Structures are given as C-alpha cells and as structure tokens.
Amino acid sequence: MGEVRDMVVLVAIGGNARGRREVPGASAALSEAEVHWRKFLSDLAERGLKGPKLIVSDAHEGG
Q1: Would residue 34 count as lying in a domain?
Q2: Furthest-apart CA pair in the chain: how many Å?
Q3: End-to-end CA distance of the chain
Q4: Domain for residue 61, yes or no?
C-alpha cells in the first residue's frame, strides 16, 4: 500500500522574447525550504535561465 505525503510544487514562470508566458520548469519537493529552491534554481540555471527577478513563496507562518 502507498503512503500519502504533503508536498509542494516549485514552478518557474517566465516570458519569452515575444512576451509570451512560458513554464521553463517545475519540480515536486517535500517543502519550500531553501535547499529545495536552491536545487530547483540551480537546475534551471544549468539549462540557461538567467537570473530570476521575482520569487514568490507562501510557506510563511501567519502572525
């Protein structure tokens, strides 16, 4: 029998030279911890992504 686990999906959305939105990458991870973002962004950089200009995360506790 399988196991159900909470996971997150890290998604990169960007614009191409024609101004159209693209999804150059997505990755499932166990959390939005820095280690997972670092791996995700490193993988995108190896594929040619040039510097993200905005990163949005909702993994912050409310106050």
Answers
A1: yes
A2: 47
A3: 38
A4: no
